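Hi Y.,

Following your request, here is the sequence exactly as I used it, all 416 residues.
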Amino acid sequence: MSKVYFEGAAIKVRRSSRFLVTLGLTAMAAFLFITTGCDTPASGTKGDVAATVNGKPIMKEQVEKVLKQQGQGQESKLSPLELAEARLRIVEGLIQQEVMFQKAEKEKTVPSEEDVTAEYNKRKTATSLSAEQVDKRLQEMGETETTAKEAIKKELAIQKLIEKITSKVDAPKEVEIEAFYNTNKEMFLKKRGVKLAVIVIDPANSGAGDATTDDASARLKVNEIGTKLQQANGANFTDVARESSEDPSRLQGGELQYFSEDQLKQSFGQYAESFMNPKYTVGNVAGPLPLFGKYYYFKLLERNEADETITLEKPGTREDINKLLVQSRKSLLQASYAALAMNEAKIENLLAKQVVENPNDLSGARPAQAQSDSTPAASPSAAASEPKKDGGDANAKPASTPAAPAKPAANAPGNK
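Below is the corresponding structure, written out as tokens. Let me know if you'd prefer a different format.
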């Protein structure tokens, strides 16, 4: 189907116009929720306030909490300048989050306490942790059930707001679909290549909640996944990817974009020959394969031996263009709405103001108290808080197992 080829373009569209407000609403870690905006106390000295949004303060304590939650023990490698820069980025994200949450309150898209509790319990159950383990994870992140629920409330409120705003987008007309096809024909040239699904296990320690923190724990997880896949003959690959992969592609059941043969070589080096080898048949699972310092299980979803031009009449083409155009318009609409909301809000970024007023004194961007050696300073990123998962089937392997290639291309697993 045409979808197989140009869904990568849809991914690029979604990413290029990604709603900035989500900076404060990170993807959930192994515990499934990292809180980045708990209830802000109404009181507090001005020196404790990082910013205000329509009079509501965002405390420096919140900024430091995000630093700790997003850090990976690399703070000692960062300079004071890098720490200050990271804090400023976090404040910007928290400001955007607060602006949109206040909009959600006005638009009455804030969920009920019952809905928040139901979502909280759903995420709790999905972790497969005991109540005691959940409490321990929250404590490690400096959170409580109350602050976790508050973060979920903000997340759901903004999601509903976005859904309400983007519901105004109509489906494109037939003439628009045809115009898109005729002006983007290069997108519909499906080159010889493959479509893969992946399960990734990362031995690196990603912080609180990461179950695979070294090679030994990663290998144990790899073996568990291999057993699951072997018992089902690889049939449950999608489910295992969703539950256990440590790659963002888990949200799509492990599915990656379509790779042309050239892209395969750029992304996977010598493994490209294995994926293109007819002996590696569609449906087979290969792994675990060491790659980029991680462990990978691959499932071959599709292979095309020759280039193919996808016509507009081919089943699924019009539907896929429709989805791509609708998503692009929704992304533009929500980004524009956020920009207007930011313009309308009365915002005071006190951390930024301190930097401007004291350009040679980086302490202006630091918390009121002395910098702690235990305070991570990585800037927030969705990838840093991705859930940890498992994956694998030793049944089928590529025709050969070449050495891991050099640096992966931008569309390689984990860089998607």
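The chain has two domains: 2-13+174-309, 20-168+324-384.

Thanks again,
Q.
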